[in-house]
Amino acid sequence: MNTPVLDKRETAMNTPILEMRNITKTFPGVKALSDVTFQVAQGEIHSLCGENGAGKSTLMKVLSGVYPFGEYSGDIVFNGTVQKFGTISDSEEVGIAIIYQELALIPDMTVYENIFLGNEIKTNGFMIDWNETIKRASAALKKVKLNVNPATKIKDLGVGKQQLVEIAKALSKNVKVLILDEPTAALNEDDSKNLLNLMRDLRNNGITCIIISHKLKEVVDIADSVTILRDGQTVCTLSAKKGEVTEHDLIKHMVGREIDNIYPKREHKGSDEIVLEVKNWNAYDPNIGRNILKNMNFNIKKGEIVGFAGLMGAGRTELAKSIFGNPDGYKINGEMRVKNKNVNFSHSQQAIASGLAYVSEDRKGNGLILMQDIKQNITLANLGAISNQLGVVDGNAEVKIANEYRISINIKTPSVEQLVSNLSGGNQQKVSVAKWLFTKPNVLILDEPTRGIDVGAKYEIYTLMNKLVEQGMSIIMISSELPEVLGMSDRIYVVSEGRIAGELPIEKATQENIMQLATS
Amino acid sequence: MSFTQNLQKVLRENIREYGMYIALFIIFAIFTVTTKGVFISSRNMANLLNQTGYIAVLAVGMTLVIVIRHIDLSVGFMAGFLGAVAAIAMKSGTPAIVVIPVVMALGVLGGLITAFPVARLGVPSFVASLAGFLIYRGLILMVTMGTGTIIIADPFFNAIGNGYIPDIPIGILPGVHKVTLMLGLIAIGLFIYSELNSRKQKEAYNFEVLTRDIFILKLIFVSALIAAVTWVLAGYNGLSWTVVIVLIVVAVYHFITTQTVLGRHIYAVGGNPEAAKLSGINVNRIIFMVFGSMGMLTALSGILFASRLKSATTTAGTLFELDAIAAAYVGGVSAAGGVGKVTGSIIGALVMMSLVSGMNLMSIDISMQYVVRGLVLAAAVIFDVMTRSSGK
Ligand SMILES: Nc1ncnc2c1ncn2[C@@H]1O[C@H](COP(=O)(O)OP(=O)(O)OP(=O)(O)O)[C@@H](O)[C@H]1O
Ligand SMILES: [Mg+2]
Question: The whole model's pTM is what?
Answer without folding.
Answer: 0.79
